[in-house]
Amino acid sequence: MKILGLDLGSKTIGVALSDDLALTAQAWTTIRRTTPEKDLSVLRKLILDHQVNEIVVGLPVNMDGSKGEAAQRAESFIERLRTLFPIKITPWDERLSTVAAERILLEGDLSRGKRRKVIDRLAAAIILQNYLDSRSRKMEQSP
Q1: Which of its termini does the chain have fewer beta carbons within 10 Å around, N or C?
Q2: 94-122 residues labelled b (16+ CB within 10 A) or e (exposed)
Q3: Residue 73 CB: number of other CB atoms within 10 A?
Q4: In total, how many domains does the chain have?
Q5: Distance CA 33, CA 55 (A)
Q6: Would you list the DSSP string of 61-110?
Q7: Could you tell me the CA-to-CA distances from 85 to 61, 88, 104 in Å, in that order?
Q8: What CATH number does the domain containing 9 carry?
Q9: Pair 3, 135: CB distance under 8 Å
Q10: So what's the pLDDT on residue 97?
Q11: What is the pLDDT of residues 89-135, one digit of tens each?
């Protein structure tokens, strides 16, 4: 069972992919956004090529829990995904995922240019790993 993680931006979509057991997330690629149709076509190919069973989409909720314009755009994108792909699609609170990705890259002493190239896919991996960890905790707690 593979799970795809997405970090939606206005110019790019960061993509992460789980391992076959859905235990760990790996930063995978960054999709440069062009048109909604082309973006979804690229995602369709990834879903089919990697036999993805579920998609987790970062939902950029404000720190106070409210949903702003970016969250509304993400929800619209999620609804579009649901009409196109007959698999489970889960919105996931992504608060501070980009901040965490930036911190990791700074600690790795990457240049600004290199950080810009990988930050979206790393943020997607953080979103996906948080989701996977949450699932794991739920399974541990159930009798």
Answers
A1: C
A2: beebbebbeebbeeeeeeeeebeebbbbb
A3: 13
A4: 1
A5: 18
A6: B-TTS-B-HHHHHHHHHHHHHHHH--SEEEEEE-TTHHHHHHHHHHHTT-
A7: 24, 8, 33
A8: 3.30.420.140
A9: no
A10: 66
A11: 999 988 766 666 667 655 666 566 665 666 789 889 999 999 999 88
